């Protein structure tokens, strides 16, 4: 049996995916992601079961890997990531496993860091386009631009509907 292993975002738990999948799947999470999914109260029993069966495994990324990822994120000018978001990027990098998420900011940043990604139900996202955005001039730019050519402001990532 081939085990499929993923570093898993909290939104995947909100969708219920780990609770429905068979034993050929393993879901790695960070303590920060555990904190987020503990908010879904009714799923807690299910989660504890998955944890005790080692179908969901909590791993804390090393401080060196977190620092490496935070540095990379900073150099990309990406400010839309939470601490849990950064933690799964660091864990994906550390374990060399694909990151599964429905959050386009996480997915795009992972791609820029050359990490493998999986978006379940990808057709839901195909209408979205990724752009860079100047929050001062309210203008969109192609993804390769780092700075606004009007005002010099550092651009941020944005997913927009086509
Ligand atoms: Zn601007």
Quick synopsis:
The protein is an alpha/beta fold and 162 residues long.
Write up this protein.
It is a single chain. The protein has 162 residues and is of the alpha/beta class. It folds into 2 domains: 4-122, 5'-nuclease (Rossmann fold), CATH 3.40.50; 127-161. Helices cover 38% and strands 20% of the residues. The protein starts with a strand and ends with a strand. Bound molecules: zinc ion. Residues 134, 136-137, 148, 150-151, 153 line the site of zinc ion (ZN).
Q: How many separate domains make up the residues?
A: 2
CATH homologous superfamily of the largest domain? 5'-nuclease
Order of the strands making up the biggest sheet: 3-2-1-4-5
Number of strands: 8
Poorly predicted parts: 123-127
- Sum up the overall morphology in one term: elongated
Q: Please tell me the overall pLDDT.
A: 87
Our measurement of the CA-to-CA distance between the termini, rounded to an integer number of angstroms, reads: 41 Å
The percent of residues in helical segments reads 25-40%
Q: Total number of helical segments?
A: 7
């Amino acid at each position: 049996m081939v085990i499929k292993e993923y570093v898993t975002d909290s939104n995947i738990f909100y969708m219920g995916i780990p609770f429905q999948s068979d034993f050929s799947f393993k879901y790695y999470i960070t303590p920060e992601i555990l904190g987020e999914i503990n908010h879904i109260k009714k799923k807690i029993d299910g989660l504890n079961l998955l944890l005790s069966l080692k179908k969901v495994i909590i791993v804390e990324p090393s401080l060196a890997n977190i620092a490496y990822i935070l540095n990379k994120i900073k150099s990309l000018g990406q400010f839309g990531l939470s601490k849990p978001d950064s933690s799964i990027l660091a864990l994906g990098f550390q374990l060399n496993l694909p990151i599964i998420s429905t959050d386009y900011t996480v997915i795009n940043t992972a791609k820029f860091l050359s990490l493998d990604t999986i978006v379940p139900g990808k057709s839901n996202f195909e209408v979205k386009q990724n752009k860079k955005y100047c929050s001062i001039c309210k203008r969109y730019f192609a993804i390769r631009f780092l700075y606004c050519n009007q005002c010099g402001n550092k651009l941020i990532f944005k997913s927009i509907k086509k």
